[in-house]
Amino acid sequence: MTDSTGAAGTAAAFEAQERRKLTLYTLLLVFIVALDVVTKMVVQRTLVLYDPVPVLGDVFRLTYIYNPGAAFGLHLGDYSRFIFLTLTVVAVIVLFLWYRATPWHDRLRLVAIAAVTGGALGNMIDRVRSSRGVVDFLDIGVGAVRWPVFNVADIAVTVGAVLLALSLWTEETASGPDAF
Fold it and tell me: Which of 12, 14, 46, 158 has the highest Cβ tally under 10 A?
């Protein structure tokens, strides 16, 4: 005989965890997309295209540019916009499925997935809005030695990817050497 009260309690606990999981994921994703969109709007309204504005001398500047490619200026020719839009849609779907499969107790992975998804969606919005590409504006370097100009969405994707790698490494380490 099964205990219906125990099963109902377990189901209620699971539903509560799923709500918390969805809340964490949604809030972080929306925050990242909103911050990315707002910062890009401010840049477009206040800065002059391709005119660097020193913030910390030459080390950190705000330089409003359009990047028609992907990270680090990766460009795939005339169809870059559509290729990267398609890849982003596929990535967001895969990330959502990964989010769904991630248990509530693995908050590091949930945060990582939300960060990568939020960053991907932030840059996807730019690709949909303009054929010119993604708005980038954070410019770090010294003289001619500069990191490619980036944005808030790029930071979210990078931080999320590092956290995701850490989450996967932690899981692998915890499962021990006999896991494979």
Answer: 158
Active site residue 136: yes
Number of domains in the chain: 1
Residue 143 inside a domain? The answer is: no
pLDDT string in tens for the chain (180-residue length): 455 667 888 999 999 999 999 999 999 999 999 999 999 999 999 999 999 999 999 999 999 999 987 766 666 777 778 888 999 999 999 999 999 999 999 999 999 999 999 999 999 999 999 989 999 999 999 999 999 999 999 999 999 999 999 999 988 787 766 554
Q: What is the CB neighbour count within 10 angstroms for residue 15? A: 10
Domain of 23, in residue numbers: 13-49+82-133+150-175
Specify if 31 maps to a domain. Answer: yes
Task: Determine whether 16 is exposed, middle or buried from the number of CB atoms within 10 Å of its CB (0-12, 13-18, 19+).
Answer: exposed
Whether residue 154 lies in the annotated active site? yes
Instruction: Give yes or no for a contact between 127 and 62, defined as CB atoms under 8 angstroms apart.
Output: no
Judge whether 129 lies within some domain.
Answer: yes
Residue 29: φ, ψ to 5°: -60, -45
Spot the catalytic one: 36, 126, 139, 154.
Answer: 154
**Active-site position among 36, 126, 136, 139:** 136
